[in-house]
Each structure stands twice: as structure tokens, then as C-alpha cells.
Write a structure and sequence with these properties.
Layout: E1 11-13, E2 23-33, E3 40-50, E4 54-56, H1 58-66, H2 75-90, E5 94-104, E6 107-116
Antiparallel strand pairs: 1-4, 2-3, 3-5, 5-6
């Protein structure tokens, strides 16, 4: 097998460090194991972040996510661990990880964890007037 799972997160220099911009990554094939039953849990991870000096490299992210496939973890713990690891690797201005787990025992679980760098504040949202085209 040419690729193997890895806990190593690689980064690259942010090409526009002077600007706040949002990177959104959707990871639809996350799996880990239920720590109680050993059965697989499936989730879609939604990562949103505003980088500072570094961005996460996507192939390394894929291998990192893959590394959880055979690990037992509660939804809350694994979501926070992934966020902590990504924050440690990239030191973003802002990062949010939403883990949307598939149904288990008739219950859907979504876990949302966030990080904000000290002193960073989001810019106020821009509200554009509605034009004639929307009438």
C-alpha cells in the first residue's frame, strides 16, 4: 500500500498572511471506533479556519484523519483532539471543527469545537443592499 495513516500534520506558508480569509474543508469519510462496542462510527468533518502564517497541507490532513480509523474514541473527545492537533500545527487566527456523526442507536451527534487566537477579533459581516435583481 503506497500511503499509510499518519499523525503528522504538514503545513505550508500562508500565501496571503496580511488578509483574513476563510478556508473551508469538508471531510466526508471520517471513521473511528466506538470505545464501548468497537463498532465503527462514521462522520463528516467540516473544518473552517482563518490562517495566520501557516495552512494545513491536504494530503497530510487526509493521512491524519485516516489514522483514527482503528482507534476507539468518544465523539466529543475525538473532535476536540483533532481541533487541538490542527491548532498546534497551524496556529490559526480562528478555527472551527464541526463533526457531524451518523446515526448510532437512533441518535445523531454533532460536536462543534472552536479556537480563537488571543487578541483576534472577527471583522463585522458585510451586509450588501438588495438590488433590483432580487425583487
Amino acid at each position: 500500500m503506497p500511503s499509510q495513516p499518519s499523525k503528522k500534520l504538514e503545513t505550508f506558508d500562508n500565501p496571503q498572511p496580511q488578509r483574513d480569509y476563510c478556508i473551508r474543508i469538508r471531510i466526508p469519510e471520517f471513521t473511528c471506533l466506538c470505545p464501548k462496542t468497537g463498532q465503527p462510527d462514521f462522520a463528516t468533518l467540516h473544518l473552517e479556519y482563518i490562517p495566520d502564517r501557516l495552512c494545513v497541507e491536504l494530503k497530510a490532513l487526509k493521512m491524519y484523519v485516516w489514522s483514527f480509523r482503528d482507534e476507539g474514541a468518544f465523539h466529543e473527545a475525538v473532535t476536540n483532539q483533532i481541533l487541538d492537533d490542527l491548532v498546534a500545527a497551524t496556529q490559526p487566527r480562528f478555527m472551527r471543527l464541526t463533526a457531524d456523526f451518523n446515526v448510532r442507536g437512533g441518535i445523531y451527534t454533532t460536536v462543534v469545537a472552536e479556537h480563537r487566537a488571543a487578541g483576534w477579533e472577527a471583522a463585522p459581516p458585510v451586509v450588501l443592499p438588495q438590488g433590483a435583481a432580487s425583487e
